[in-house]
Design brief:
86 residues; mainly beta; Thrombin, subunit H; four-stranded antiparallel beta sheet; three-stranded antiparallel beta sheet; 9 strands
Length: 86
């Protein structure tokens, strides 16, 4: 949700158990869905993009120099690197 002088506004609908959020250096909002078949999502401008699907309980998000994203996949006890698409 976004709150401003005019009130409260829903930014993103249709999320399934949103968990972790992170702001990338470019200002995009990244979101994980804490599910057995979870997703890593990127919200920029007014567009919601599924970056990765089929993750098992994705949790934390970290951003590396150069644009790669790291996601901890709790359900498989590993860290996944999502390479920046050039």
């Amino acid at each position: 949700m976004r709150i401003d002088d005019t009130g409260t506004h829903v930014l993103i609908k249709g999320l399934r158990r949103p968990d972790q959020v992170g702001i990338a250096p470019d200002g995009a909002l990244w979101i994980t869905e804490d599910r057995k078949s979870g997703r890593l999502l990127r919200f920029a401008g007014e567009t919601l993009e599924v970056v990765a699907g089929g993750l098992v309980k994705p949790q934390g998000i970290a951003f590396r120099p150069g644009g790669d994203v790291l996601v901890s996949e709790q359900g498989l006890n590993r860290i996944v690197r999502i390479r920046r698409i050039r």
